[in-house]
Write a structure and sequence with these properties.
With 156 residues, the protein is of the alpha+beta class. It has one domain. It contains 4 helices and 5 strands. A 5-stranded antiparallel sheet has the order 4-3-2-1-5, with no helix packed on it.
């Protein structure tokens, strides 16, 4: 009959990286925060229905983080590159969180509209934090794998 091939993720760090990419992709579907004056803060724009302020760096950083996570999965034979890409992903998510928590609500919107914008963050604000934790777990597992291989090399 027909043979159905299944893809199995054999290393736990691959699962963590896949979960990180999946969680970060949720940002494209949910609102990040409600702002005073009926403004809605989405990944790609801040809008009140008539005024749009486009937040281009945020979707670029989110897509880059997703791509780095996926690329890291396929570099399973090069643990050194995986560690470096995890560090790059840490940096991307850290910059993303700085933009979301500090730059857009505190600086750009206050300067543009002249009032203090205190955002009411939705549950989706935890997405980059959860993704950051998954990448941290993947980084730890990659290091553990690397140490195991090095110890096996010493025994030979």
């Amino acid at each position: 009959m027909f043979k159905i091939s299944s893809i199995m993720i054999q290393r736990i760090q691959s699962l963590y990286l896949l979960l990180s990419a999946a969680v970060m992709s949720l940002l494209f579907f949910f609102q990040i925060a409600d702002l005073p004056g009926n403004f809605d803060f989405y990944l790609w724009k801040i809008t009140d229905g008539t005024t749009n302020i486009y937040t281009l760096p945020l979707p670029i950083l989110a897509v880059m983080s997703i791509l780095v996570s996926i690329i890291t999965i396929f570099l399973f034979k090069k643990r050194g590159y995986q560690v470096k890409l995890c560090m790059l992903n840490f940096l991307l998510i850290l910059i993303f969180m700085i933009l979301v928590f500090w730059l857009y609500p505190g600086f750009i919107l206050t300067k543009q509209f002249g009032e203090d914008f205190q955002p009411d963050y939705n549950f989706s604000i935890f997405v980059p934090i959860v993704s950051f934790i998954f990448i941290l777990l993947a980084h730890k597992a990659i290091r553990k794998d690397d140490n195991l291989v090095k110890s096996a090399d010493r025994l030979r």
